[in-house]
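Chapter review: from sequence to fold.
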Amino acid sequence: MDANATRGSPGQPAKSLEEVLMIKYQHATVDGHKIFYREAGSKTAPAILLLHGFPTSSHMFRNLIPELADRYHVVAPDLPGFGFSDAPDRKQFRYTFENLARAIDNFTQTIGLERFAIYVFDYGAPVGLRLALAHPERITAIISQNGNAYEEGLSEGWNPIQKYWKQPNAENRAALREFLKPEATKWQYSFGVKDTTLLAPEAYELDSALLSRPGNDEIQLDLFLDYASNVALYPKFQEYFRAKRPPLLAVWGKSDPFFLPPGAEAFKRDNPDAEVHFFETGHFALETHAEEIARAISDLLGRKLTRKPSAA
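The token string follows.
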């Protein structure tokens, strides 16, 4: 057999390496709603579930997926209300992190993803860590890219949101609309980046366009309020790190205006084997350092995971 081919299912033709590496753009129906996802790599390879954050989507992984797909089965869904997944009406779907995690849990089961590493970023961290609490046996490793689980990782940039947690009134909710403006989205991408010519404008422009959809502002404001539930779970997340000691890699844009480097270092307090890498960039580290982060992931997983036999 051609070394550049892999076997398909019984009765199906073998796929070329190029076909295996090609990113597929698909939808899965979960609880009556469509979840959009990107998928690449052989389904016999160790799996990685990529979970995005605010205000982006699986589009943020467009450069990372090709770097990993030759060795791993990579799946990157859009959370409900984000990207190209359905955004159910708030009367039909309550936008909480618990419900986002439940949707992604059901998504993984719908597509047959049984055991996987999680790559968590921003909002993806509390979603992914909720999965880990619910199904620790399914999580093979954790890669946290500016995905916080410690109070010392929260910067002063969270002050307006924390004020809303303490006083969830109309005035404090309205003040947070500043975070939803196109200028704020572009700033999240550019802050801390030394060479902003490396930033692809379609990334923040797409985020802004999707944020501007009718009703999406209220979805995001609901999630700002519910983020307090994630902070309340930090002790449970930390206990999970201590008790289960999953292979853990923190890859951190050190100039992130929201999640500070101490939040990355804190992983080692609860999991002494955690590995921490800092990069000279901001919140969206993949925009400038996708290749370096991919190498760090492959190094960790190559040492910590036992790869299934090749289907070639």
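Two observations follow directly from the output. The first strand starts at residue 5 and ends at 6. The chain has a mean pLDDT of 93.
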